[in-house]
Design goal:
The protein is mostly helical. It has helices at 2-25, 30-50, 72-85, 95-106, 110-133, 138-167. Helix 1 (2-25) packs across helix 4 (95-106).
């Protein structure tokens, strides 16, 4: 529970940051923001599809033990927070980068950006929970063999949605 609360709050903080960045980017004309969204989306997708391991800014080390120094529940919540932000943890797919950039360029109402990022944070706890619950058996073997394929599929889906949004027009 503490982990899910932490990831959800972490996603929300990221959402607030993206909403502020989106407000700053809103001074750019819509065609410029649309071109920036398309260029970043295609570039990130190309990187993800051509690299064996995605090489984008991320932290690939474990969370330091000091996080758990003030108690396990607090440590789990803080680790969840960091994991939910997507800033201090491993991001194996370009999907979250594509989505974050699109949120900044599309200039949605701030609460919609916050909602998308909050759901991202919560979904990270859900995915971790499922991985632990299903860590034995055929599902775990399947994921182990197909993880990079599934990561790339996430990027393809995110890119398709962003490109469709641009094709159908930004407001």
């Amino acid at each position: 529970m503490a982990f899910a609360v932490g990831t959800t709050l972490g996603g929300a903080v990221t959402g607030l940051g993206l909403a502020v960045a989106s407000g700053l980017a809103s001074v750019l004309p819509v065609p410029v923001r649309a071109m920036a969204a398309v260029a970043a989306t295609l570039g990130l997708l190309l990187l993800d599809l051509t690299q064996a391991k995605l090489r984008l800014p991320q932290r690939e080390t474990l969370i330091p033990q000091e996080v758990f120094a003030q108690g396990m529940a607090r440590g789990i919540a803080w680790f969840g927070f960091e994991y939910g932000t997507g800033v201090r943890t491993l991001i194996p797919s370009a999907a979250s980068y594509i989505t974050a950039w699109a949120l900044v360029m599309f200039h949605l109402p701030w609460w919609q950006t916050l909602l998308v990022a909050t759901v991202f944070g919560f979904s990270r706890s859900w995915a971790a929970g499922l991985a632990m619950a299903l860590s034995k058996g055929a599902w775990s073997v399947f994921l182990g063999r197909h993880s990079r394929l599934l990561e790339r599929l996430g990027s393809v889906v995110a890119a398709t949605l962003v490109l469709a949004a641009v094709a159908f027009g930004l407001r």
